Amino acid sequence: MSTNTNAIETERLSKRYGRRTALDDCTVAIPTGHVVGLVGANGAGKSTLLQLAVGLLEPTDGTITVLGGRPGAGPAQLARVGFLAQDAPVYGNLTVGDHLQLGERLNPGWDRALARRRIERFGLDPRQRAGRLSGGQRSQLALTIAIGKRPELLLLDEPVASLDPLARREFLADLMQLAAEHQPTVVLSSHLLSDVERVCDHVVVLAGGRVRVAGDVDDLLASHKVLTGARTVSTALPPGQTAISASHTDRQTTLLIRTAGPVHDPRWQVSDVGLEELVLAYMSADVPARSLAAVGP
Amino acid sequence: MTWLAWRQFRAQAALTAALAVGVVVVLVMTRHDLSTSISPGAPTGIYKLLRLLGTGLIGVPAFVGAFWGAPLIARELETGTHRLAWTQSVTRGTWLRTKLAVVGAVTVVLTAAFSLVFTWWSIPYDNIDGRIGTANFGQRGIAPIGYACFALALGALLGLVLRRTIPAMVATLVGFFVVRYLVQTLVRPHLLPAETVTRSLDALLGAPGRSSAASGGWILSRSTVGPTGARVNGIDQALARACKLTRADGPSQIAACARRAGFHEIVKLQPADHFWPLQAVETALFLGFAAALVGACFWWIRHRAA
């Protein structure tokens, strides 16, 4: 695959369900070769974006291109994208073994050995009905089907939301290992920042159906600073610096800013920002989305 | 994809096939006695019971529509498994085509077996009662195959649009019987040109008469006309005036009077030998409905479903 093809590229993408707008005028490019966190509150449009990317939904407006093709355009395009839907749907009255058959018969690139290995590793009995699996086992089965087709792009919609903490930790550890071994681009949505922080090296923050910020985690952390100063200091910033959020106590003011270079103003005490703090600032920021979306390295 | 469609459907298919085989075996085993020793005009005991299978045969397409058609897509949408199925390396068009083909093939085979064996079994009765009339037509021949395909497609589409199994099942049952009834009453009489015959009033008046040209046919309308060819309302009074007879004089005398005075009956009907042509046209009509509904399914699944 050519290196200049983005995994997901949207251009003024909108999706409305009747009167409700789920995605509004989103323009974003998600590069290949990363584990990407799609972050936002419930109802921010994460699930809608992923379903548009796999072709389950059609855009109301705008375009979306996935690995250079139109989502769901045909068997070949479908084969390139693996998808784990929210709540990991499986056929309750089919067995685990049946699901492996399903994956094998419906996907030309099926990796039987990989699928078998995973089923054994997680102690799933091929004869057991999928309807009787625990939430964690069901997620592992569904992920096995998604990864068994050996996709170039793996989309996971809230893969850990329904899992208990231990299962969640195992699931993410396994996912990291998969990403390292098979190198697909992974996009996973989550409203749990700690999970994203653990596994993702690229984030896209959605709020209110819009992309608030997107970029490599390292770049984002390098280009954002927390400024702390006395309450009396003016919050006016020099060119090249933009305040994302501001909070005040009686005596002190804290700003989260995006900056192209180092901050030299002696009135501010400058410190680094954590990913969680940064993402939360963007999620709650009441700023025009488009001016923020284009944060580049 | 065929494997998955069959894997999801095989338990129901096997159960229904077992039932169908049972019915066919019973019919084949009882047919010999029926045609030799029983007076078919007045069925008794087991034969009376077996004739009710015809009513069951009317229900088979409704069953197919509600229990196979309606859940076909609705259950997937309800449980979210369509998100699993539609994101494998198979387009949802292929997915739908395969599912419909597998369930459709089983539907056709089972319905055809049941209906054709029952049609053969019923010949001794039908030689007397006729089979083109509304009571029997839908329980015989190939029409049930058309009904079943229509019901299956209707159920699939309603399930796809309503996205919920139970409402889709109910809507399918209602829709199927409404369409079936409307076709039977409003459309079927006109599917082939009806014939008009003139016959004596013997049968109408209850006199033992020779069988007429209308025997075994499906009578669509009948009217009594007098010597002048004008329609007669109140045949009793008209005959009383013509022959000075009343009902008390007995049917044979009255009938003789009616013949003498030139009263007769004009009957519009589909004759008995229209049975198979009418079956073919009605089956084609319902297969046409089914094709249109399947087309709508493909349109909807590509453009509206998610």
Characterization of the model:
The complex is a heterodimer of chains A (about 300) and B (about 300). By secondary structure, chain A is an alpha/beta fold. Chain A contains ten helices and 13 strands. Chain B is mostly helical and about 300 residues long. The mean pLDDT of chain B is about 90. Chain B is elongated and about 85 Å long. In chain B, strands 1-3-2 form a three-stranded antiparallel sheet, with no helix packed on it. Chain B contains 13 helices and three strands. In chain B, helix 5 runs antiparallel to helix 13 (about 275-305). Chain B has helices at about 1-35, 45-50, 55-80, 80-85, 90-120, 125-130, 135, 145-160, 165-185, 200-205, 235-245, 250-260, 275-305, and strands at about 195-200, 220-225, 265-270. Chain B folds into two domains: about 1-190 and about 275-305, no CATH class; about 195-270, no CATH class. At the A-B interface, helix 2, strand 5, helix 3 and helix 5 of A face helix 1 and helix 4 of B.
Oligomeric composition of the shown chains: heterodimer
- Structural class by helix and strand composition of chain B: mainly alpha
Largest sheet of chain A: 6 strands, mixed
**How far apart are the termini of chain B?**
19 Å
* Top CATH class of the largest domain in chain A: Alpha Beta
Q: What separation lies between the terminal Cα atoms of chain A? A: 23 Å
* Biggest sheet: strand arrangement of chain B: 1-3-2
> What form of chain B results from the Cα inertia axes?
elongated
- Give unreliable regions of chain B as ranges: none
Count of DSSP strands of chain B: 3
Helix content of chain B: 55-70%
The domain tally of chain A reads 2
- Structure annotation, total helices of chain A: 10
Count of the domains of chain B: 2
Beta fraction of chain B = 5-15%
- Estimated radius of gyration of chain A: 21 Å
Protein chain pair with the most extensive contact, residues per chain? A-B, 36 and 21 residues
Calculate the mean pLDDT score of chain A and round it.
Answer: 89
What name is given to the CATH topology of the largest domain in chain A?
Rossmann fold
Spell the H/E element sequence of chain B. HHHHHHHHHEHEHHEH
